[in-house]
Amino acid sequence: MKYQWRDGNQVNLLINGEEFYPRVFECIRAARREVLIETFIIFDDKVGQELQQVLIEAASRGVRVELTADGYGTADLTPEFVAAMTSAGVHVHIFDPAPRWLGMRTNLFRRLHRKVVVIDGERAFIGGINYSADHLGDFGPMAKQDYAVEVVGPIVADIHASSLRIMRPALEEPSQVRPVARPAGDARMLLSVRDNTEHRRDIEQQYLQAIRAANYRLIIANAYFFPGYRLLREMRNAARRGVRVTLILQGQPDMPWARGFSRMLYNYLLRDGVEIFEYCQRPLHGKVALIDREWSTVGSSNLDPLSLALNLEANLVIRDARFNQQLYQHLNGLADEHCKRIDLEKAVRGYWWRAPLIFLCFHFTRLFPAIAGKFPAHSPRLKSLRPHLEENSQAFCDQGKTS
C-alpha cells in the first residue's frame, strides 16, 4: 500500500502523559463502534490499569476493541491482567511472541514499536508514548519527556487501514467501520511507516528529503540518536549551507548506553556547525522534528538502527505552519531552559582514543541496513489471547512471560 499526502486535517500536539492519557481515555470512553490500539509497552501500574478499565467499559457496551501489544515490550504483563480484559470482550493480541532462552527474551529484533490509537475511524493518535506511569511527571526525576498528536480528517483513513493491516492475521472478522473522509482543518499530512516488506526506508527517506530541502532551521529532538551515515551527512551539509541545525538529545538518559553512542557522533557534527543540546530535566523519550516554518514529524521512530532498519514504526509527517510554530516554541524553550549546550572543545576531549571507535561506528551505521537485511525477515506472528485465565496463563508460560 502506498500512502499519499492528505489535505484537510486537524492536528493537536499532546506533550507527555499528563496531556496524552486523559485525552485518549476520554475518547475511548466516548467510542461508539470500534477502538484499535497498537503499543510497544503496557505496564500493570496506574496508567495500564486505567487503560484496562476504559477498554473493558468500551467492550461491555458493545464497542469492538482490538488491542495489539509487542511480545518483547509487554513481556511481563500478568495473565490476570489480560484475562480481565479478554473476559469482558477485549480482543488482545501479542505481536511476535517468543519463548525465553536461559531466561533471556529472544524477540529483540523486528519489534512492534508503533504507538497508534484509532477510534470509530474518525479520530487517531500517533506518537511515542507507551502506557506506563513513567510518562507522568509525578513518577519522579525519571519521568519521560515525550510527544504524540491527535488528528481528525482524511488522514485517519490511512491510519485505520494501516492498523488493520498489522492486526489482520489475528482478526476474527473484518472491520465494519468506514473512516470519515470529510475535511476537518488545514493541515496536510502523510502517514509514513517502516516495515520489513514494502516500506523499509520510508521514514528515513522523509527525513532525508526534508533535510535536503531545508533553508532556514532544522530541530530534531530524539531519544536514541545513532542514525546512519546518510542522515548524518545531510545534517552536516545543511549546517554548512547556513541552515541552523539543532539537536536535542538525552542528557539524563533512562539507558546510559544511549547517550554514550550518541556522543561518539558529536565531534563529527559540531565541527561543521551543528548545535547539540542535552536535555537534563527528564529522560528524553521523544521522536519529533521540524524543518523551516511548515514541515514537522511526530511518531514512534527513533533515529537509530533498530527503528530505521528493524522495528515496525509509524510517524506522521505534517505540513502546517501553526503546528510547526507551536512545536518550535516548545522545543526552543526546552533548549533554552532545561538543556546544556555541548561545545566542540568538550566534544574533542579524549578524541585521540575514541577516533578508531568512531570510525568503526560510522561505517557500521552506514552499512547497518544491509547487515539487518541478512537477519531473517520472518512473517510477523500475532497470538490472540483467549478469555480464560487458565489458557492465558498457559500462553504466557509458553512464552516465558509469567511475572
The named CATH superfamily of the largest domain: Endonuclease Chain A
Q: What fraction of the residues are assigned to beta strands by DSSP? A: 15-25%
N→C terminal distance = 39 Å
Mean pLDDT: 88
Return the CATH architecture of the largest domain. Answer: 2-Layer Sandwich
- In the CATH hierarchy, the third-tier topology of the largest domain is known as Endonuclease, Chain A
Please tell me how large the radius of gyration is.
Answer: 21 Å
For the biggest sheet, the summary is: 16 strands, mixed
- Helix-strand pattern: EHEHEHEEEEHEHEHEHHEEEHEHEHHEH
Regions with little confidence, pLDDT below 50 for 5+ residues: none
Numbering strands along the chain, what is their spatial order in the largest sheet?
15-11-10-9-12-13-14-8-1-7-6-5-2-3-4-16
What form results from the Cα inertia axes? globular
Notes on the structure:
This protein is α+β, with helices and mostly antiparallel strands. The chain is built from 13 helices and 16 strands. The chain has a 16-stranded mixed sheet with strand order 15-11-10-9-12-13-14-8-1-7-6-5-2-3-4-16, with helices on both faces. Helix 1 runs parallel beside helix 2. The chain starts with 5 loop residues before the first strand and ends in a 5-residue tail after the last helix. The model has no long low-confidence stretch (mean pLDDT 88).
